[in-house]
Hints:
The chain has 336 residues and is mainly α.
Amino acid sequence: MLVYTARRFAVAIPVLLAASVLVFLMVDLSGDPLSDLRMQQPPPSPETIAAAEARYYLDRSIPERYWLWMTGIGGNGDIGLLQGKFGPSVRGGPFDIGEQLASGISITIRLVSAAIVMALGLAIVSGVISAMRQYSKLDYTLTFIGFLALAMPTFWLGALIREGGLWFNKTTDTSFFYTIGANSARVSNMTGWEYFLDSAGHLVLPTVTLMLTSYAAWSRYQRTSMLEVLNSDYVRLARAKGVRNSVVVRRHALRTALIPLVTVATIGIVGILEGVVIIETIFQWRGLGYFFIEAVKAKDTFALMAWLMLSGTLVVLANLIADVLYGVLDPRIRYE
């Protein structure tokens, strides 16, 4: 297993390198980050334009800019992905892309991790129950809930849940649901326990929104996979030998039925990152979604490149974790 994991890491390196080329070309050719400066009235002097182009390395060729962005060799000491420097931001010197990205990650991880754990848990439970009670009223109910959540656009579902929280607070004259931000404004004056409760309270509504969008699809895959395994020969043989049904489901069927869900869930990380952009905008979280939206508004090319490279790295790591989990869940799979 260790050898296989090392090989997968080795394969991931050229994949990430190819992704970096695509990210650079896609963002670099998407527009001019200095377009607002060029369109100012009165027009800036040619010297000002030239200085700005040199500041953001726009006076270099595309291959030179990519080399600078990756290595930082030949730059001004503010660029070089391999050195942990993401490049200068068009929003000015005080705006550090690395610091802002790290701050956004810490906020978004709270939301994404909680949503993934809840979505996986509910998807596995509901999928197994639906498969074991196929065509029952409970199966139809869970199927309806899943398709209903799957059919709802993320932005509409998030707005609906947020308005529901506001309506509940207004009706009960309380602040039971937090609908803005990842923490309250007075967070700096809170103790450890107060900070935990405040963070948990702000997590509820956005987590439920992100969880529902993932749970809806994952539960359908789990139900289908579980039905296929329950009708397989080895499960029928175990039942014919008199093995209790709970043991058959837990030790034989569920473990195998989880393999397709692992694949879908890891690939679904891309969709979760897309959902984070929408949900953080609705609930006004200053995480990776906010970072991405603000970078697009400002035409901050280096910030966009940093966000896309982070997303690509997460996808590659998720697929590596999925491959390793195959060997854990299915004893027939061995990596030499």
